[in-house]
Input
Amino acid sequence: MNRIFSGMQPTRQLHLGNYLGALRNWVALQNDYECIYCVVDLHALTLPQEPDVLRNNIREVAAAYIAAGLDPERNIIFNQSAVSAHAELSWILSCHAPLGWLNRMTQFKEKSQGKQANDAVLGLFAYPVLMAADILIHKATHVPVGEDQKQHLELARDVAGAFNRAYGQDYFPLPEPQILGEATRVMSLRDGTKKMSKSDTSDYSRINMTDDADTIAQKIRKAKTDPEPLPTAVEGLAARPEADNLVTIFAALADTSRADVLARFGGQNFSGFKKELVDLAVDRLAPITTRMRELTGDKAEIDRILKRGAERADAIASRHLAEVKDIVGLLRF
Ligand code: AMP
Ligand code: TRP
Output
């Protein structure tokens, strides 16, 4: 049986990269699979958080899931910390995760950059093991994520394999990454060689899921380009990261390919293309933003959805945790 699991951190605002690289694909998958979508609040604690802001962000990410089209009845939507089996399995798996594997994780290197080696916190280092636990506690088989999570998923597979070998059982399925769509890596609007990210200091680098139409228009108008007209074929995008990024975003939003976009705009300058891109982005994002605002206005409703989701997730996770405890030789009463 196939089971999907994925999650996002409630750290600041979701942006177009989160939407095109992950969330939109999750919505498509809900028709064919049993899906569990998590707000990974424990992961957010790996960087400093203001408690009240974190609480709000957890609800806001849940609202974004629903506003983007995830049905909380058909899918399980919950926050990670509400199901304690995630953290418990994380400990057990950490005892099967060699330091050498974790030392290779590029995201840890990036996030701990600028810190003295001994000042980076243990939670940030252990982050990929908690992520493996998120997936494995539900015995998920498929994990839809953006390209930046590929390495973490390989680690999850390796840890699952290490556990299975240690106990001589085929207990955990090895989860498959699903990196889907045209825009698996959306880049910054200010620098086509950098990933669009929540942590970029310039708000003009990204389109946030909460931006209104005017803000979206302004950001796209100011987006960096180069002086050449748009190329007529995909190969022409090769050494042009900003052009490539905008064309990719267009293709993803329009549910088409980069080749199709270039068939339409190739040879033209950026100004006409950008106008069309603004209309398209606003058309796709505005209904989501509106729905998100409505939902975040009703905290009680979001909390009710998360609580119900946590109960359903807990029913699956507790059963698996009990099996794991039996496998490894822990007593439970
Ligand atoms: P995060 O915001 O780091 O919790 O990421 C949540 C999901 O969005 C993950 O599946 C990421 O791979 C995906 N994601 C984040 N940034 C981007 C981006 N710039 N392009 C494509 N996918 C992204
Ligand atoms: N590390 C992921 C990210 O930053 C979030 C995450 C945590 C996740 N646990 C997960 C994604 C389990 C997929 C499955 O994007």
User: Anything to note?
Assistant: DSSP finds 13 helices and five strands in the chain. The mean pLDDT is 95. The chain has two domains: 3-178+299-328, 203-293.
